[in-house]
Amino acid sequence: MLNRVIQQLGLQVESMNEVEDSFSSTVYQCVLSTGERVYLKIPFSKLKFQRELEAYEILKGKVAIPSLLDHWEGDEECPGAFVLSELKGKPLTTAATPNIAYQVGVLHAEMHSIRPPEKSLKGIKNEFPNWSTFLEKQFYSFAEDVRDVLDESLYRKALKKFEQMKHELPAPDGPSFVHMDFRPGNIIVDEETVSGVIDFESVRFGSTEIDFTKLHRDFLSCDDRLFQAYQDGYKSVRPLIDLEKVLPFYQFTDAFNSIGWCKRRGVEDNASFLEVNLEILKKWVV
């Protein structure tokens, strides 16, 4: 399929390497015959392709993202493909300075400042009007998979915990463009500058509260200075919700849903990610 995608897009590729930290889509870093470095991305499904395509149109000129150089809408065998410009730098790490954390906050808030367009979209749904229902559908759709992984007692405790915690959430904040996978691996940094954000296969319009969990787990919780700088950057663009009131619920549900994701994509292939989320889940329900 890869050769067919390259042919459809008319790419003259000199060399290519698959990007490892891509859990859903298939991504290749390519060097073209002109010497230009680009990324070739094949999304996991047609829906994810459509979401990403719409996201590039919505975010262009408003948020720092790669340029969409070309795309192919695919066929019955391939969901489609994108040719993307290279954002200079490497994924965000906990070695970043407070200056970088501040810029990440600005970037995140700029994205959350984007409201749903008036025109109808095929891929990106506005889940905000029925936010509570959206959370329930996500949780209980993964519950069918999680049940095969957890013992019955832990599974029942998790369901009970969800029902308890969802009633403690404050009013939703939005409708905003939410990334749904805003984590260090999707934030590109070049020395002391944040180059931008990547990967829009899971985006929605919804409440901002769902979008802080992974960044907090993998970056903000590691250093109080980074957390404070991030908050200062975010607040320079828009008000920040009280994270203490929402993070516990989303940390719990993210771990639960991630266990279900591992079951769907293969427990053996995602063993380490599964183990991490099992430990997080147990902290909340045991």
Model description:
This protein is α+β, with helices and mostly antiparallel strands and 286 residues long. It has 2 domains: 2-86, Phosphorylase Kinase, domain 1; 91-285, Aminoglycoside 3'-phosphotransferase, Chain: A, domain 2, CATH 3.90.1200. It has 9 helices and 10 strands. The strands form 3 sheets. It has a 5-stranded antiparallel sheet with strand order 1-2-3-5-4, sandwiched between helices. Strand 2 (26-32) and strand 3 form a beta hairpin. The radius of gyration is 19 Å and the shape is globular. The termini are far apart.
Widest β-sheet, arrangement of strands: 1-2-3-5-4
Order of helices and strands: HEEEHEEEHHHEEEEHHHH
Task: Evaluate the radius of gyration.
Answer: 19 Å
* Class inferred from helices and paired strands: alpha+beta
CATH superfamily of the largest domain: Aminoglycoside phosphotransferase (APH), C-terminal lobe
Low-confidence stretches: none
CATH topology tier name of the largest domain: Aminoglycoside 3'-phosphotransferase, Chain: A, domain 2
Q: What overall geometry do the principal axes of the alpha carbons give? A: globular
Task: Tell me the number of helical segments per DSSP (H or I, 4 or more residues long).
Answer: 9
The level-1 CATH class of the largest domain: Alpha Beta
Number of domains: 2
* Beta strand %: 15-25%
CATH architecture label name of the largest domain: Alpha-Beta Complex
Tell me the major beta sheet: 5 strands, antiparallel
In total, how many beta strands? 10
Oligomer: single chain
Q: Indicate the mean pLDDT.
A: 95
Rounded to the nearest angstrom, the distance between the terminal CA atoms is: 46 Å
Helix share bin = 40-55%
